[in-house]
Write a structure and sequence with these properties.
By secondary structure, the chain is of the alpha/beta class. It has 2 domains: 4-123, NAD(P)-binding Rossmann-like Domain (Rossmann fold); 126-222, no CATH class. Helices cover 39% and strands 21% of the residues. It has 9 helices and 9 strands. It has helices at 13-24, 38-47, 58-62, 79-88, 103-116, 130-140, 158-161, 170-173, 176-191, and strands at 4-9, 28-34, 53-55, 69-72, 92-95, 120-122, 150-156, 204-208, 216-222. The strands form 2 sheets. Strands 3-2-1-4-5-6 form a 6-stranded parallel beta sheet, with helices on both faces.
Length: 223
């Protein structure tokens, strides 16, 4: 079976999870790592013994015929730049959440993807979380009866797990909702999907902050 070639743009902490995932899938092979800091890409190549190219220029990777899928794991404000370029190069795209930090950028991605006819996926990993998958199954089986309200609480310790300082920059990462709270919104929309409950407009939205030595939380409700 011919493997699908993968190119990853951005080699920060999140990119490592994509490296591990593609290594476990026999249908794919990582063929290029792109990072403005060459040492970051070399770190993952060496750590996982990858037989892949190292690039500091994404355009060089996008011209490769053996790359079918492009993963964008750059700072959030750069997602649109590389997602659009990947679409124009005819590559299928995985975009780390949030897909964009402005509506204008989101529309640019949509237009580029539609024009190119490529497939895209946004990295909302909770859809593969065993707990949430179990909740989804129980909802589908009617175990909870007549559901009239859904609430999702999302706890974030991002400063304890991510080394990149750009996460603290509103210009690069966007709001706290886009950086972490979008997971809660995604889960809420998933569980409150049409056909299972009578859905109305969101009645309450709340985001809570905390000092650096404590956990921040976001709460989203629909009723």
């Amino acid at each position: 079976m011919e493997r699908l070639g993968v190119g990853i743009i951005g080699c920060g902490a999140v990119a490592e999870e994509y490296v591990k995932a593609f290594m476990k899938d026999k249908r794919s092979q990582i063929r290029a790592l792109v990072s403005a800091n060459r040492a970051d890409a070399e770190r993952y190549r060496d750590r996982y013994d990858l037989d892949c190219a190292i690039e500091t220029d994404a355009e060089k990777m996008l011209r490769r015929k053996d790359v079918n899928i492009v993963v964008v794991t750059t700072p959030h404000n750069l997602h649109t730049k590389y997602a659009v370029a990947a679409a124009e190069a005819g590559k299928h795209i995985i975009i780390e959440k949030p897909v964009a930090i402005t509506l204008e950028d989101l529309r640019k991605q949509q237009q580029a993807v539609k024009k190119a006819g490529v497939k895209t996926l946004v990295g909302f990993v909770l859809h593969w979380n065993p707990l949430l998958m179990t909740i989804d199954r129980l909802i589908s089986e009617g175990i909870f009866g007549n559901i009239f309200m859904v609430e999702v609480d999302y706890m974030h310790r991002i400063w304890m797990t991510i080394e990149e300082k750009w996460y603290a920059s509103k210009e690069q990462s966007g709001t706290a909702i886009l950086t972490g709270g979008c997971h809660a919104i995604d889960a809420l929309r998933w569980f409150a999907r049409s056909g299972l409950i009578e859905r109305d407009d969101v009645r309450e939205m709340r985001a809570l902050g905390a000092p650096p030595n404590r956990t921040a939380a976001s709460r989203w409700m629909i009723s």
